Amino acid sequence: MTFTGDLCVAWAGHEAGHHYTVAGNMLVGPQVVEAMARAFEAAAQQGEALSACLLQGLEAGQQAGGDKRGKQSAALLVASPAPRMYHNLRVDGHPNPVAELRRIYDLVVEHARQIEQEYGQEGLRLFSRVKY
């Protein structure tokens, strides 16, 4: 069940799918949420990891017009029993934050692959632990 709210800005909305929801306000219109949902679904059907599905959704939303106030930040946060370094990334104050998030994500995914090749699954698990 989803509910965007009665007192939101001129356009605010959401879309719910199988095991996901997309919601937004301050967007250029409903096409942003629709594009995000379609991209997420397509990535999931291709067997992509949740982090990749979410990032593809963000990219599609930006391409569909994104936030009506312009570009400022982008973030990716995945809660997982097996956390990875690329599950918690954020870009702030960048002229193209979604593209920068993609660039960083790809770098960190490749770094994780290298760690796994060199140190195995256990090494990757230890290296990926959340550190405070």
UniProtKB/TrEMBL annotation:
Which ranges form a coiled coil?
none
- Which branch of life, at top level? Bacteria
One Pfam family in the UniProt entry: DUF1028
What InterPro entries does this protein's entry cite? DUF1028, Ntn_hydrolases_N
Protein's name in the database: DUF1028 domain-containing protein
Per the UniProt record, the lineage of the source organism begins with: Bacteria, Bacillati, Chloroflexota, Caldilineae, Caldilineales
